[in-house]
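Quick start: read one record
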Amino acid sequence: MKITPLKNQIKKYLKEHRLEKKFDKARKFFEQDIRHPSLNVEVLEPKHLKVYSFRLDKKYRAVFIVVNGEAEILTVTNHYK
């Protein structure tokens, strides 16, 4: 599944937290196979909203929705805050 171009705010967050390389690696896995084990894709609660996340590393996750067959990244968050 393709990921739509990132918003500037998300690019800035990735740069500030030095996550650009990790995001690029996760993007490659995601676009090749959304079920890749290292991504740990999951549906967030409440499930009926169909908001998902995938792992960048143990600490950070990318939150996304699917629009017209493409993943739109809504935010990148610290998973434990």
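Residues 6 and 80 are 23 Å apart (CA to CA).
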